[in-house]
């Protein structure tokens, strides 16, 4: 019988970078802060470190509202910091898992901006758009104080 896959046999330690460890004293945890504490993860014998979103984001939804999947939000560091953290984790036998949610972009993401720009845009069907009732509110607005209601620009 073969050995179970790495994600089936060991502990996966989820890290919320914003609160894990702050390396530069600005009050926000960052990638370098995580790197400074890898010895704790090693001592726990974790198989992988799962990082909550570190992508550039307007932070309306604590980083899950991603504006760019190909970069690191400066509040957490840089791509170089992520490379260094990944190398340091791998040197300790720890895998790195990035929390990647492709269907949860922010209204700043180029896919969303394009989709919203025109009913004829090729990315239009990447999101669900519905028209309001004539003179009515946006379709299915969230309850007061919960979430963000997006409206289509008058030109689209």
List the helices and strands and how they pair.
Elements lengths: L5 H4 L2 E4 L1 H4 L10 H5 L2 H7 L3 E4 L27 H13 L3 E4 L11 H8 L39
Parallel strand pairs: 1-2, 2-3
Commentary on this structure:
With 156 residues, the chain is α/β, with parallel strands linked by helices. The protein has a three-stranded parallel β-sheet. The N and C termini lie far apart (58 Å). The protein has six helices and three strands. The chain has two domains: 8-98, Transcription Regulator spoIIAA (2-Layer Sandwich); 109-156, no CATH class. 20% of the residues are buried. The protein is 26% helix and 8% strand. The mean pLDDT is 88.
CATH fold node name of the largest domain: Transcription Regulator spoIIAA
CATH architecture of the largest domain: 2-Layer Sandwich
User: Mean pLDDT across all residues, rounded?
Assistant: 88
- Helical segment tally? 6
Structural class: alpha/beta
Share in helix: 25-40%
Uncertain runs are none
Which sheet architecture does the biggest sheet show? 3 strands, parallel
Give a quick precis of the structure.
Helix content is 26%, strand content 8%. The chain is an alpha/beta fold and 156 residues long.
Keywords:
6 helices, 2 domains, 3 strands, three-stranded parallel sheet, 156 residues, alpha/beta, Transcription Regulator spoIIAA
């Amino acid at each position: 019988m073969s050995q179970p896959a790495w994600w089936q046999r060991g502990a996966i330690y989820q890290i919320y970078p914003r609160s894990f460890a702050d390396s530069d004293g600005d009050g926000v945890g960052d990638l370098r802060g995580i790197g400074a504490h890898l010895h704790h993860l090693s001592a726990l014998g974790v198989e992988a470190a799962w990082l909550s979103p570190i992508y550039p984001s307007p932070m309306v939804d604590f980083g899950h509202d991603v504006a760019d999947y190909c970069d690191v939000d400066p509040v957490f560091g840089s791509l170089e910091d992520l490379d260094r953290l990944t190398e340091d984790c791998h040197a300790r036998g720890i895998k790195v898992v990035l929390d990647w949610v492709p269907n949860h972009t922010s209204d700043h993401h180029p896919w969303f901006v394009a989709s919203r720009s025109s009913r004829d845009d090729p990315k239009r069907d990447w999101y669900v758009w519905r028209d309001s009732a004539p003179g009515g509110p946006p379709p299915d607005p969230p309850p007061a104080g919960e979430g963000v209601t997006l409206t289509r620009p008058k030109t689209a």
